[in-house]
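The freezer alarm interrupted the setup, so I double-checked each line after restarting. Inputs confirmed:
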Amino acid sequence: MTAHPRRPKEPRISIVVPALNEARNLARVLPQLPAAHEVILVDGGSVDGTIGTALELMPDIVVVEQVRRGKGNALAAGFAQVTGDVIVMFDADGSADPAEIPRFVQALVDGADFAKGTRFRAGGGSADITPVRRAGNGFLNALTNRAFHTAFTDLCYGYNAFWADQLPLLDLPDHDEPGPAGGAMRWGDGFEIETLINCRFAASGARITEVPSVERLRIFGESNLHAVKDGLRVLRTVHTEHRRARRRVQEALQRPVSRPQHTVERPRISVAS
Ligand SMILES: Nc1nc2c(ncn2[C@@H]2O[C@H](COP(=O)(O)OP(=O)(O)OP(=O)(O)O)[C@@H](O)[C@H]2O)c(=O)[nH]1
Ligand SMILES: [Mg+2]
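Predicted 3D structure, all chains:
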């Protein structure tokens, strides 16, 4: 893979950290982060002093308070504040190893548009995944690969990085409109965000490199993910994203030939060396 001619060799790194009641974990995680252009903490209305702890440990951290609920909305709100070249999606619970960030960035500098973390290639692993989650992830991963002609190995993993210039292509839901009455979670706002991002990169023909990653145990507190409920949201996402991608191809085919054609390449997925 060749490096992109107009992208910097030493990109400014923006680390986006969604956090819901992660004060105790942030006390361990933030001091371990490597030097970055900016760290953006997106708080989901925490009641445990998450924002205060973050500011105490890292006075220049950018704090964003999300408008709606869910990790997807948090990430979209954080991405909107990014001023760097590369975005790293980084969980606050201690499960992501900060020492891996340079590997994600290197994959991008080497030519990838999207550096996708994987626990299931040589060099990757997980101390955290349960048999039920592993099976569900495997099934949804296979389904996505069939639908998008991809070779993903770990669909539902939150540790990823991409060039900020790809944000318009992702076309994420508006992050600051108020949510539905009654507090229901809006589509795209939940844990399906990772699948949505993967599918949109795949449909756009982006250059994707999988980066082996070792997921650690959450240090304190409890998971916000519910295997069945969130698994069903991911399933629906694969379906709706597949339909969206097909619709875009149909629309492109119906345009007059004199206009530039939207082509959908089969994305090539390589593995970080
Ligand atoms: N701002 C915000 N952050 C959230 C929300 N839901 C989850 N998060 C954060 O997103 C990250 C991932 O959520 P987790 O609850 O750890 O989900 P998970 O990693 O799938 O589950 P475990 O493997 O059990 O840790 C953590 O940093 C959470 O604090 C939310 O609604 N708003
Ligand atoms: Mg976690």
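Quick read of the result. The chain is about 35% helix and 15% strand.
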